[in-house]
Amino acid sequence: SYVLTQPPSVSVAPGQTARITCEGNDIGIKSVHWYQQKPGQAPLLVVFDDTDRPSGIPERFSGSNSVNTATLTISRVEAGDEADYYCQVWYSRSDHRVFGGGTKLTVL
Amino acid sequence: VQLQESGPGLVKPSETLSLTCTVSGDSISSYSWIWIRQPPWKGLEWIGFISNSGSANHNPSLKSRVTTLADTSKNQFFLKLTSVTAADTALYYCARARRDSSGYYYFDNWGQGILVTVSS
User: Fold this and answer.
1) Looking at CA atoms only, how far is residue A2 from chain B in angstroms?
2) pLDDT single digits (tens) A35-77
3) A94–B108: do the CB atoms touch at under 8 Å?
């Protein structure tokens, strides 16, 4: 089955840029979506189709996808961005419909 | 659109877990829908998916224990998971599925989740 690999944790100081990666074989040919999950809350879609933001999501959240790595970038990180982040792809094969393992973003 | 999960919070081992997702603010016939679960302190796993045409499929890792159905007259869709074990203890979410640019799916609206514990 298809596997998406994320780093377990990323730490960044307020005001700096956080980059959370999602690695998968040929992920560049798939559409990648990102979710933010704060403690006690349901996941929230923050980026879809590699680079697009739903309405209401700040421009500080952006995404990219190339070859074997997709990246969620959060600029000018704020304390309120502290959360778990998950990447996700959906493909024709049922075993290629997966979430990454999640990355805990800590704001120092 | 709002989604609300409902069902028993405690299920005995070997029994069937049954959950309902009630959708308001949109017709379930207009979109596809999905069940996703999250074991305590772990990541997200999709369980069952039902398209707006009514076709359903499930995560192959669950070995056909999953049934996903919809009732358009009630604007609800359902999850049944048979032969549960402690490993099925999780927070269960229902969500709306939207087509992505590749023709596949992402999930833009989620319910608040319901905790289901499998225990005797």
Assistant:
1) 12
2) 999 999 999 999 999 999 999 999 999 999 999 999 999 999 9
3) no
Pair type for strands B114-118 and B10-11: parallel
Positive or negative, the CA dihedral B54, B57, B62, B65 is positive
Q: What confidence score (pLDDT) does residue B76 get? A: 97
- Nearest alpha carbon to residue A38 among B113, B101, B53: B113
Rama region for B63: left / alpha / beta (φ>0; ψ in -120 to 50; rest): left
Quick check: A78 contacting B, CB < 8 Å? Answer: no
Which of B46, B102, B111 lies at the smallest CB-CB distance from A42? B111
- Rounded distance, CA B68 to CA B92, Å? 13
Which pLDDT score is estimated for A43?
A: 98
Q: What is the pLDDT of residue B56?
A: 92
d(CA B57, CA B104): 14
Contacts of B26 (CB under 8 A, 6+ apart): B1, B96
